[in-house]
Amino acid sequence: MTSDTVRAAPRLTPGTVPKIPPSRRRRLGDLPVAALFILPAAVGFAVFYLWPAVRGVYLSLTKYNVLTPPRFIGLDNYERLLGDHLFWNALKVTGEYVLINIGTQTVISMLLAVLLYRLTKSMLVRGIVLLPYLVANVVVALVWFWMLDFQLGVVNNVIEWLGFDRVAFFGSDWAIPTIAGINTWRHMGYTALLIFAGLQMIPPSVYEAAAIDGASEWRTFWRVTLPLLRPVMALVMVLSVIGSFQVFDTVAVTTGGGPINATRVIYFYIYDQAFNRFNFGYAAALSSVLFVLLAGIAYLQMRLSRAAESDLRGS
Amino acid sequence: MKRSLAVACAAALLLTGCGTSQEGDKPAAAGPATIDYWLWDTAQQPQYQACADAFHKANPNYTVKITQYGWDDYWNTLTTGFVSGTAPDVFVSHLSQYPQFASQGQLLPITDQVKRDKVDLSIYQDGLADLWVTKDGQRYGLPKDFDTVAVIYNTEKLKEAGLKPAEMAELSWNPQDGGTYEKAIAHLTVDKNGKRGDEPGFDKKHVATYGLGLNGSGDAFGQTEWSEYAMGNGWNYADQNPWPTRFNYADPKFKETIKWFTSLIDKGYMPNLDIVSSGVGQIDAYGAGKYAMVTEGSWNTKTYWALKGVKSALAPTPIGPTGKRASVFNGLADNISANTDNPDAAWAWVKFLGSPACQEEIVAKQAIIFPAIKTATVKAEQAFADAGIDVKPFTTHVQNGTTHLAPIAEHWAEIKATMTETMESIFAFKSDVNALDQANATINGLFG
């Protein structure tokens, strides 16, 4: 996907596009074939995404406990949602998580990507960077949970050996930063590779030009690398922010939403309402709100970062 | 069914995605049949496999296929199974879960079968069989086991503290100063510098061994956390049990118990909630020597004895202000799904699981749990003794009538959610025990 955005760019420039007069028949002629190719994906999308989403919106207007048929109750679920302190708490906690997670993950990934790009061509190193991503989320969470255990964990033993007080990593103050950190650790390699792919798209000529102009390394990074990475970064950010909002398994495996409500992130709250408390209608309402929220955030991100445009023209 | 299946897919998609559901092959009612049986405890799987083999021998037509799911996944998988028609024929059920399944028509009542086959319900420990009768008088299960609570302590730490096992058996407790029970806990607590909890200069911020371990705030149940104190203080969960209509979480007796219990955290005798939630679990911390004693349920006994590097012994829960000890009395049974392919086969299997042939001849000898049948309990006690474990601290409650039924209520999931939040807040000292007033009002509001 990343390569397309950049490679497609030259084609947009006038002159390179072969001038074929647009003919109505020809366009129609492509349609059946195109439809045929899209069909498998479209069926999957309709059956597994579109239909459940529509059902979800309908269910959000009902009282439904799975085992008896849903009963239509209008907007009651949404009204309840506005007055539900746990919903607002979930939004707050999730927001905190996303900020910490995306902040650290983006900075570290960028650093990693630049290091990979400048220092090594070794496939082995690239593979190692990706390694945490290849381990299942639940396993990562469990291993860290053990290592960060207050009384038995290796991390706290090292902290105490260094002369500091032990840290309750999954206590109410630290739980969200800890969980955000664990997921940063898991995802940074993957994100770094995406950015790395973006770096490779930047033509060496612009760097040569910058070098001839006497730009320092620091300045080159800010003035050349970052601006040219923007479309790739926009994609990475949209994907990782949406992914980050969907944090669930790490919480489920470690804190289960506690202590008190410190880690009751929105996905976990939806799950709790649906599968532990059988309030499927209410859970569907929560999901619908989250859907609108995520769509809005993604739209804003795309607009603000002008993701569809590239600064690379006629290179 | 189809309609709800689509809905389940929609719901499940949120988390996992939904494949095609598998319709179990439906055998003819009279011919050979396979009975799908689910349980959650890996430690108990071998003994019930043995029962299944014996059952198959006695009824060659019936084969039992056992599937195990961990406790955390068990109920979700089961609910999804009910919706999609892939639920097992028979499954191990829990008192806190079965009321909502029964009220939604997912369980097959066995009232008539019990009458028809003249099943003798008096062979079970008193009260256990009645737990599985709902408000409308329908019976849903035959008791398979029971559990109570006791203190498990590290014998090495007890010796270091200069306490005698005989003293441990006679501890008493009250909500004002904690009695001899708190004195023992304080003396068993040791800080990093080797100072004990009852010595001057004890550093409560750097504790090496806590006198008493903690598993969590105990939500609405507190089975192994605080129920033994609260009920020894004359408190009950609700106005009646089973099927309460008013809960007692705002009762002064409960409040003073919780106030005392959380004061152990403040004194440094028990780990705080941050430590507990930043930990893998009470059993592992105890195994590593971080806790001198813990309060535990009988089902975990063997797990504690299997820990390497610690030697343990049992003591009964302390005598409360009522002059009596107390323990929650909980028990499991097997439920039959309402849409089982073969109700006759399922009933035959449930009846076998509730019979001496399974409980007395097989389960009791494994010394993992206490079977529900009175004569089998005695055999299990002997089997535990043969394994070097004196389980009298658990069974004393049954002999002396100091057991209190586990709460069996509608809306339990909602009650639990409300109490989890409130209790954790109290345990973290973010609110005081008067927050229970609000929680109790919310809970009673569920019952109209």
Description of the structure:
The complex is a heterodimer of chains A (315) and B (448). Chain A has a domain at 85-304: MetI-like fold. Chain A contains 13 helices and two strands, in the order ααββααααααααααα. Chain A has helices spanning 2-12, 24-59, 76-82, 85-119, 123-134, 137-147, 154-161, 175-201, 204-212, 217-245, 249-253, 266-276, 280-304; strands spanning 62-63, 71-72. In chain A, β1 and β2 (71-72) form a beta hairpin. In chain A, α2 (24-59) packs across α13, α10 (217-245) runs antiparallel to α13 (280-304) and α12 (266-276) packs antiparallel against α13 (280-304). Chain B is an alpha/beta fold and 448 residues long. Chain B contains 19 helices and twelve strands. In chain B, the strands form two sheets. In chain B, strands 1, 2, 3, 4, 10, 11 and 12 form a seven-stranded mixed beta sheet that branches. A five-stranded mixed beta sheet of chain B has the order 6-7-8-5-9. Chain B is globular, with a radius of gyration of 23 Å.
Give the SSE layout.
The complex is a heterodimer of chains A (315) and B (448).
Chain A: H1 2-12, H2 24-59, E1 62-63, E2 71-72, H3 76-82, H4 85-119, H5 123-134, H6 137-147, H7 154-161, H8 175-201, H9 204-212, H10 217-245, H11 249-253, H12 266-276, H13 280-304
Antiparallel strand pairs in A: 1-2
Chain B: H1 2-13, E1 33-39, H2 45-58, E2 62-68, H3 71-84, E3 90-93, H4 98-103, H5 111-116, E4 143-147, E5 149-154, H6 155-161, H7 165-168, H8 179-188, E6 190-191, E7 207-212, H9 227-232, H10 252-266, H11 273-277, H12 282-287, E8 291-297, H13 301-305, E9 312-315, E10 327-336, H14 343-353, H15 356-366, E11 370-371, H16 374-386, H17 392-400, E12 403-405, H18 412-427, H19 435-445
Parallel strand pairs in B: 1-2, 1-3, 7-8, 10-12
Antiparallel strand pairs in B: 3-10, 4-10, 4-11, 5-8, 5-9, 6-7
Helix pairs in contact in B: 2-15, 15-16, 18-19
